[in-house]
Structure formats: C-alpha cells, structure tokens
Amino acid sequence: MMDFSGAVALALPEIILAVGALILLMVGAFGGDKSTGLVSVGSGGVLIAGAVAAAYGPLGSTFNGGFVADNAAAFAKVFIYGFSAVGVLLGDRWLKRMAASKFEFPVLIVIAALGMGMMASAGDLISLYIGVELQSLALYVLCAFRRDDAKASEAGLKYFVLGALSSGLLLYGASLIYGFAGSTKFVDIAAAVQAGAGQGAIFGVVFLICGLAFKVSAAPFHMWTPDVYEGAPTPVVAFVAAAPKMAAMVLFARALLQGFPGAVGQWQQVLVVVAALSMGWGALAGLRQRNLKRLLAYSSVTNIGYALLGIAAGTDQGVTAMLVFMVLYMIDTTGLFACLLALNRDGKPMETLADFAGLAKEKPGLALCITGLSFSVMGIPPFAGFWAKFYVFKAAIAAGLWPIAVFGLVASVVAAFYYLRIIKTMWFDPSPGRTDASPLDARGVAVAAALFSCGLVVLALNPLDTVAKLAAAAFHLS
Amino acid sequence: MTALLVILVFGPLLGATVAGLFGRRIGDTPSRVITTGFLFLSCFLSWYTFSQVTWGEWGGQHIVRLLPFINVADFHSDWSIRLDALSAVMLVVVTSVSALVHLYSWGYMADDPSKPRFFAYLSLFTFAMLMLVTAADFMQLFFGWEGVGLASYLLIGFWFHKPTANAASIKAFVVNRVGDFGFALGIMTIYWMFHTIRFAELFPLIAAKAGTNWTFISQEWSALDLAAILLFIGAMGKSAQFFLHTWLPDAMEGPTPVSALIHAATMVTAGVYMVCLLSPLFEYAPAARTLVTVIGATTALFAATVGLAQNDIKRVIAYSTCSQLGYMFFAAGVGAYQAAMFHLFTHAFFKALLFLGAGSVINGMHHEQDMRKMGALWKLMPITYAVMTIGTIAITGIGIPGLDLGFAGFYSKDTIIEAAWAASGSPAGAFAFVVGVFAAGLTAFYSWRLVFMTFHGTGKWKHDDHAHDAHADHDDDHGHGHGDHGHAHVPHESPWVMLVPLLLLSIGAIGAGFAFHEYFVGEGQVEFWKGAIFNGPHNEILHHAHLAPLDIKLAPLVATAIGTIGAIWVYLLNEGMRARIAANGGPIHTFIYNKWFFDELYNATFVRGAKFLGDLFWKGGDQKIIDGLGPNGVAAVTAFAGKGVGKIQTGYVYHYAFVMLLGVAGLLSYALWAWAR
What we know:
The structure holds 2 protein chains of 2 kinds.
Chain A: H1 4-10, H2 12-31, H3 36-56, E1 60-62, E2 67-69, H4 71-97, H5 104-121, H6 125-143, H7 150-181, H8 186-192, H9 199-216, H10 224-231, H11 234-240, H12 243-259, H13 264-286, H14 292-313, H15 316-342, E3 344-345, E4 348-349, H16 359-362, H17 364-378, H18 384-398, H19 402-428, H20 440-473
Antiparallel strand pairs in A: 1-2, 3-4
Chain B: H1 2-26, H2 28-54, E1 62-72, E2 75-83, H3 85-108, H4 115-133, H5 138-156, H6 163-194, H7 199-209, E3 213-216, E4 219-222, H8 223-238, H9 247-250, H10 256-265, H11 270-277, H12 279-282, H13 286-309, H14 313-333, H15 337-364, H16 382-396, E5 399-400, E6 405-406, H17 408-422, H18 427-455, H19 466-474, H20 496-520, H21 525-529, H22 541-546, H23 550-573, H24 577-584, H25 586-593, H26 598-629, H27 631-648, H28 653-676
Antiparallel strand pairs in B: 1-2, 3-4, 5-6
C-alpha cells in the first residue's frame, strides 16, 4: 500500500483536471459569459498540463487497485487530453462565431476528459463505471449544448436515453462478474477465471462488452451514432468522435485483457462478431448517406470495427495495433470534422454531399485536405489510414483471425465507395455557389491533420510504434 | 575523360529537362538556345572523343561506372558509359545529326506554338539514344531502346490533334512492342545461359557455349542461335525490317526534322548497331546470321520496289531508309559488320540530308508533300536543289571503282555488295548479292525520280490553286495555317537557319566515305575498331571483298546507271508517262503502290484477330461474366443491403433500444453456443 502523497502523484493528471475544472467553473460563475475566453484558454492549459503530467508521471497502482497509472494509461491520456484541447479550441471559436459563447462549454470538455482519464486508468469495475458515467454525462450535455436547436436537443436526448440503457447493461454485467468472481478488481477477477469463465461470468462479460460497445459505437449498439453526429454541433462531434473513443477502447482492452486473460477464447468470439458487424454495417449503411456527418458516423462505426479486431487478437501485437490505429484514426476524423467546420455557405454549415459539389474550384486547399484525409481513411498507401489498417490486419492474421481480416478488407473496399464519391463530387461536379471564408482555427486543424496523414505519418510511424509497443506491454500479454 | 563523357551523355537530358519542365515559363527562344547549345556541346565533345579513340590515347574499351542500377542476387546492372570504337562512331553520328536537326528545327518549326515541347522531346530522344549506344550491359541497352521508342512515339504524335499522327504514333509503338518482346526474351535467354548481362563478362563466355543445344517445348534449339534470333527480332522492330516495317512509313506523320533524326539517321539504325555490338554472339550463331541476311536482303528489295510508286516525298525517303537498313543488315548477316557500321555512318549523313532537304521543299511548298503537285522547283530553291542532288548522288553510290573515288554511298554500299559477293558461297549470301545489285538499280530509279518530279519538269503548283484545296488536307499539319496565304503561292527557298545544316550535311554526304573508308573497312580496320567488332577465326569476308574482281565492283554502278537512265527516260524526257503508268500499271503497280498489301494483311489478321479476341474477353468475359457477377453484381447486392440497413435507422429511440437489446440477446446466445461447443 502506498502513502497518500504517492497516490496523489500517480493520479496527478486527473487531479489537475478536477481541480482545474472546479476553479474554471468558479471563474465562469463569477465572471459570467464575458470570461469565456479566459476559461477556454484555462481549459486548454489545464488539459495540456494534464497531458504533460500523464506523460512524465510515475507508474504504479493506487486506491486499492482501483486506479492504475501504467504506460497504456499514460499513452491514452496524452492523446485524449491533447485531442480534448483541440476540441476546446474548435468549440470555443465556433461558439464565438455563432455568438453563443458560454463558459460552461470548455469546462464540460475538461470534465469529460477527466472521465476519460478515469476510464483509461480504471483498475476495477467501480472506477470503470464512474469514469464512463462522468464522461458520458458531460458528453450528453455537450451534444445538447445548443438548447434552442431542436435537432441538437433531440440528439442529446437520444444519446442520454440510450446511454442510460447501456449503462444499465454495463452495471448488470459488472454485478454478474462480481457475483461469480467475488471481486471488482480486474487482477482478482483474472485470478478467479484463470481456468476459463463459468457460465455466469461469461454472461457478465457479454453484458460488459455490450455496454462498452455502445460507448465506442460498435454495431449493433451504434444506432445513436448517426443521429447524434448529425444533430449535435459539429465541434462537439469532432470531439465526441475522437477522444472518447480512445478512452473507451483502452478501457475495453484493459477490462477484457487484464480482467479475463484466461477466457480469451470465450470473449474473443463475441468480440469478433461485434467487430464484423461494425465493419459490415458501417460500410453498407454509409453507402446511402447524403449527409456528410451521418456518413462520418458510419465511417466511425466501420473503423471501430477494425480497432476491435486489434483487441480481439488478444495479443501484445493486437493491442499495439489497436493503439496505433486509434491514434491515426483520431487524427483523420478530427481533420475531417475540422474541414466540415471550415466550410459554410451563406452562413449555414455545408453538410450534404450536394453542398460539396465543385469545392475543388472554390476552396482548392480544403478540397485537397478532404481528398487526402479521405484517401487516408480509405486506407490507400502510404497515407495514415493504410498503416493503421495494416497494423490491425497484421495482428489479426498473426492471431489466426484471418477470415475476419479478409472480411474487414472487403468492407473497406465497400466503404471506399463513399469516400470516393465525396472526392468525385468535389473535383468533378459543378459548384452550386460561393462558399464563405473559412475560419482560421478549423482550417489550421484540417491542414495539420491532412499534412500528418498524407506525409508526416511516414516519419511519425516509427516513434509511434515504439511508444505503442511500450504501452501495450503494460498488459503483460504474450 | 569521365567528366567529359558524363557531360556528353547527360547534357541533352539537362537541356530536355529545362525545356520540357520550364519551357513555358522561360519562353521559346531560351528553350531553343539551351537545347541546341547542349547538343552542339555534345557534338563537339563527341568528335573530340572520336578523335581520341581513333588516333589518340583513348583506344581500347573503357567502361565508366556511374551508379548501380539493379543488384539482386547474381543479377547485376549498372548505369555506365561504355567507350570503344563502336560507341565512338555512334556518338559522332547521333550528336552530329541531332545538333544539325536542332538547328534546322529553328527554321522548320518557326511557326509552331509548342516549340519548347518539341525541342525537349528532341533532346530527350538524343539522351536516350546516347544511353543506348554507351550501354555496357543489356539493361541499359534496353533502357535506351525503350527511351528512344518513347521519344519516337511522342514525336510522331507531336501534332496530336491530327488523328493520323496519333494513329501513326500508336502503330509505331505497338509494332515496336512486338520487336521488344523478342528483345526482352533474348536478354532473358542470355541471362539464363550465361548468368550475366554485362557485355564485357558475356563475350568471353560465348565461344565455349557454341554448338550447345537447349531443349524448349520438347524441341532442340541451338542455344546461341535462339538467343541471337530473339535479339534480332528486337532489332527488326526498331529498324523496321520486313514484317515489322509497317510503322516506319506512317511515322512520317511526325515533323520532318524528326523523320531526319529518328527515322533515318539514328534510332532506326539502333538494330544494326546492336547486331554489330553483339558480333561476338552472332559470329557463333550461323542460323541467326542466315536469318539476318535473308531478312535484310528481302527488306532491301521490298522497300526499294515500294519506293518506286509512292508519291509522298517523305514516304519515298522512308522506304529508301527501310531499304538501306536492309543493306546494313545483310552486310552484318554475311559477317561484314564493319561494312554495316560504315554504311550506317555514311547513310546517316546523306539520309538526314535528303530528309532535311525534303523538309525544306515541304516548307517552301507551304506544307505540300505530294510530289505530283511539285516540279520545276530548281530555279526557286537552288540551294535545296543542289543539296538534294548531292544527297541523291550519295545514296545512289556514284563513284569510279577503279580509282576508288566517289560520294559517301559509293564506298559503303559497294563494300556491302562486295561482301555479299564474297559470301555468295552460301545461298543466303548469293541471294543477298543479287538483291543488293538489283536494289541498287531500284534505288537509283526512285531517288532520281524524286529529284526529277520535285525539281524538274513543269511546275504543277503554278496553274491550279493547290494552296487552297491541298491545304485543306494539310492545314492541320502545323496547326496554325499560313495566314499570309493569299499572296504567297509561289514556293520559296528556306531560311538560312535551315540551309546551313543542309550544307554541313552535304559535306558529310560527299566526303564521309572518302575520308573514312580506310578506317572503317579498309586496311586499317583492325587498328580502327580495336576489337570492338569481333570476327570469328574463319571470317575473312572483308578481305575477300577487297579482292573482288572489277566486273563485280562495276556491277552496282551499272545497275545504278540503268536505274538513273530509266528515271531520266520516264520523268525527264517523257513527263506524261508517269501518270500513264500509274493509270494503266495493272496489278504490279497496284501491288507496289499498296506496299505489297502489308497493312491490309496485318489489318485482316492481327488487328482484326486481336480485336476479336479483345472483344471476346472484354464483352463476353469481362463485361458479362466478371463484371456481371463481380463488380456490378456485388455492387447491386451491396446497394440493396445498404438500403436494407438504412431502413432500420428510423430515428425512433425505442427502435434503437430494441436493436440494442436484440444485439445483447444475440450475442449472449452466440456466446453460450460457442462456449458449449
């Protein structure tokens, strides 16, 4: 057992976020909406400080094993907090343009990030649940942040209701596991199901998987995703689509690989089905989408399927692949949403496919960004998405899951259709009219993401690989 | 030496890059100056290199390794520059003609809107050709081979808005693919047999393999013959030999300077050069040499007959080129590689001269190419007339056998015919000798016919308003039209920038034979070639050729005289006779005029056959079976599935929750089932 100061040191990133969120809330409460700019800057600072603390903090486990600070958690937190900071930037600027600045917005992102940090560090079922709920509640509010917008409110409500259902599933699974394993701590559960899980524990694991699958929007628990992506404000979606997914995937990996390492063969089959459903469903349903935000929702469903494949492999290599995949995917998806944010016509956001016709002539730079990022998500070498898929498929095949890897390849071919259609629409169709000037923040994020995905990734791959391997080693797998 | 050779070879590439990539930005004149400047630099360095190799310190073989190209297991290939007597000769030929053609193009292409592109292509071609001739292994040879093919394709189709030019460029490319297929197979055979593709390593190994057989498709093949024949097929394609010659006349769709450079002086001689370079191989491949002799002689005869009846001034010269290449090949076939190279050397000068002269005529006639619409131009274009006459005398090979004094073609062509006589112990050699003499007569006839129809007789351009209706056909020749046509109907002499290259080339056409025959084929040939050309121990063809009796030496001259007199009779003295022959020529004229119906034959067999096969696979195989079941079928199923999946997305929360619960139930059941299994 370690002393209090040691525990604080381990949880420092989360403490920074928690204390920071409270202080910023105070600033906002006393300063009113005028202080939004200050709060935003503060939020960004707090998030970056959290990321730095996570990167350089000590390793260990504390609070009776409920909080784990290992390399996997640190890896996830750096990216979660980093992308949350990007979310603060995009959201704050966007609200300012909408003349709807509210100081709660950045604070909510910080609180959501705090929840995600807890998820990444969860060492038992209770901290798992607390992390998930903290994150989710903040996200529900963010989605419905524009109360006057019916669509956004609907999105937030749907998210909340279905999220509550998934929390129920999660809790039920947790209680079953506790009942059959006799402990909430992953380490103890692992010891209890050493020789394979019994029927009750399997039930618990399946419920747990269902609950978490909702959080990462894996099929068939993804139904909320298109509606929420379409209805919620674009900067919120940009945030929701990236950082929470990373947190949930790491939690997913930790719960299954640290909690049930002896039952890999049993949960692997379930996870493979979920992954296959996600890849196939996302690819097929995306074909008919005319709204880009809905389309990206289905794209994220497909991509989560690929990431789940990494966990399903159940190996060190698989977790590495999943981590690399998630990082590269987060960059792609944030970049794409930033592109959407940057594009407006007559003050209205451009969201349908028809809006994008002839964009190459109107905004060649952004059209090039979208093209590059689409190629990347499609998995065209040498762009980032190719490497991401390459990692995952390699791990899956090494683990003997080649049929599902082949299925994933086929799904990615189907999904290529809708990315290619965007590209075709942008470059070859006539433009319906002029677009508005694009804001600097969104354009900057878009260009940075595109530059990374379409070039720098080749340089970044090596260090990323090294770090991801270190992180995956925290799970002590073969 | 290294630096000099690198500048020599890569200068044109630099020029091509600058003009090609930045031509639009830097403008027409800088592009022209840069490319032409580099070419003249290369030309100067080539002559210096040639003199050093021949008389100076650089004798023997030098290989400058620049960079590794391919290094896999025991397959090695380098980018290198090989310098020996053979490549030195080619350097001189290529860069001299190329430099003069560059200069000439200043005038000829003066009105063309895309000059930088033209000059970039020309320089690119020159670079590829230099890579070809300086190759030290088969890979680089093949690189240069394909490089010149590419440049040729680009230049034939330079006026790409003209459908005939596009068709011609594609035809040239496709026919060359056939040859290149054989060439590539030949290289593979060589590698398979010798495990090396470097000439320097390969040549000493060949003698040991002579006479060995190789079983392929349960047939015994003489291994060396097989390799040599495959390589020769490549040469046939590039050098437009019988069966694979059909692209060359059509290639005349390109601008005339291109025809002079690529389709007369340099690229088409690459095949001859390759056979001479591989003389160590061909010396031990008797069957292959017989084939070379027969194909060469047949081409010489065939092209000469076709040349008799063509009316397009450039096509006549194209068939003439084809015929002369035939001469070179059968010279190499009978073992007189030196004679082949010598004819290549002299031919480059007088054939480039003839082509550029024809270009001058075409330019003067406002892009009219039909000789039937010319005539009596000698007064209006005296210099062109003079140089064309020089070129014609050179190609017909007029000289005095006893004194050994004559124009360039006299030395080289007569050496070839004498070599064929010396080899006439074999049927192929005898055939080559007879054909050589007979074709010499035909050559004289069609060459003088060209001169007479163009420069003598009555001017057909005077009375009819050719410039209007004829121009309709040829207007897009140059894409801009002569705006000043209303008043400038009279043919005119070309500008000096075009005449200077003509005059320089005529010096070559007059003197190249006299100046170099001692070195190339005479007593000094062993000393000159310094082993670059290999003659087997029993190959004394050249020696025997020199000992030919006077009547043999006179034979080609007599044939030439007969041909010349015939041409004078038909085209000078009885001017209307040509039209009467054309009208009442009967089957022979039709046969010759239609180029022995080769195009029709190929169209009926290969083109239609390939089309049929293609249609079968495309419409039947691909569209119906593969597309139907594959992409289209899958796409239809996918779209259908997408529709179905989309329907579930109703927007109602309870539907979503229902799907989720279904998922939970399904996964639980699956987990139980999988677990129980």
